[in-house]
Amino acid sequence: IQGCDLLEGEWGKVGSILLWKLTFDGEPRVSKDRIEGIDVENNVIQWRVLEGPLKKEYKSFLKTMKVSPKQGGTGSVVKWNMKYERIDEKVVHPERLLKFFVEVITEVDQYLLSED
Predict the structure, then answer these.
(1) Which residues of 19-31 are buried (b: 16+ CB within 10 A; e: fewer)?
(2) What is the mean pLDDT of residues 7-27?
(3) Concatenated DSSP letters for 2-64?
């Protein structure tokens, strides 16, 4: 991820619109997402894709990230969930995004550890 800009609303608030600048499959991409839900108590956030490459293949796309304490150790476990509707049956399921999500979390982890 090269950047994230707030286009509308407030940082960390439901309804806010974000513009993500990232590299996926070796190509620069831009995605506009709306924060659909935040559950602070359970460490869950949801984003709905409004514009970008995913909208070319999917009618709707909702990403959910949940962070939970790692049982029996330090650190956390991150779980991603994707709910989507393909434009048609020829569009593949988005498994390739899972690798990207792992890369993003790894970058966040490295950043947080460097702050200690």
Answers:
(1) bbebebeeeeeeb
(2) 92
(3) -EEEEEES-TT-TT-EEEEEEEETTEEEEEEEEEEEEETTTTEEEEEEEESGGGGTEEEEEEE
Q: Supply the pTM of this predicted model.
A: 0.82
Q: Give CA–CA dist 48/109, Å, rounded.
A: 24
pLDDT, mean over the chain: 89
Q: What is the pLDDT of residues 35-74, one digit of tens each?
A: 999 999 999 999 999 999 999 999 999 999 998 888 887 8
Q: Nearest CA to 38 among 58, 60, 67, 76?
A: 67
Helix (H) or strand (E) holding 86: strand 76-86
What is the C-alpha to C-alpha distance for residues 86 and 77, in angstroms, rounded to an integer? 29
Set out the domains of the chain in order of their start, with CATH numbers.
3-114 (3.30.530.20)
